[in-house]
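Hi F.,

I've been meaning to write this up properly since the lab meeting, where we talked about keeping a consistent format for the predictions we share between groups. The idea is simple: the sequence comes first, exactly as it goes in, then the structure tokens exactly as they come out, then a line or two of notes. No screenshots and no reformatting. I'm using this chain as the first example so we have something concrete to point to.
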Amino acid sequence: MTYCVGMIVDKGLVLMSDTRTNSGVDNISVFRKMFHWQVPGERMIAVMTAGNLATTQAVISQLEERTKSPDERETTLLNGPTMFSVVSEIGKLLRTTIEQRQKANGDRGKGRFTASIIVAGQIAGMEPRLFMIYPEGNFIEASWDTPFFQIGETKYGRPIIIRGYDRDMSFEDAVKLVMVSFDSTLKANLSVGLPLDLLVIGKDEFGPTHQHRVTASDPYFETISSNWGDALKTAFHSLPDYSFDTEK
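Output, unedited:
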């Protein structure tokens, strides 16, 4: 399993993903799930993947090859005229990859090779945009009504983001919010694990504003995890006590 979050704020985009893959409690590996490409001064595009590892690695490998091959320049991440066209191309590639693997494995392949992708980025002259691509290749775009997407193990960290999100928050607060969301998920599900990859993309910067890998010994994440637990206990005990007294 995995957990990835993409969030859009007034200042730009904040992305975070875990790196754990497992096929049982005794077979755990670390694989990067966040990737990005840029043309300085012109575009910055990042993707995060969740689902079958062979499928997502095949998609990423093909995207990498298309950025290098002269014959594919009309369909590369680096030449699409809009984010919509870039996401459409990635969606088609994801759908085709899944179909090929399912077909090659017959009945045994049904439902085993699915994956989903978050795509975030900006092209010069346009606004930063955030999309989520489904296994079928179709996708939806974030808006101020739905300003963040999650893929993978989403349920534990979602309430944190819903309660804490504000579109005009600083990048620092947005990162703090996402880290709390990840800490809650890590505490509740062993299939999500450190290290975590963080990427901040500032509006009109067309490159990483901030990049960081959060390891198990990261002092800030350790502080967030410890202090959040204490803050929850304090908030809980500050709530009015429930009474068994039924008299009005």
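Notes:
The helical segments are 53-66, 83-104, 158-164, 171-188, 219-238.
The mean pLDDT is 93.

If this format works for you, I'll send the rest the same way.

G.
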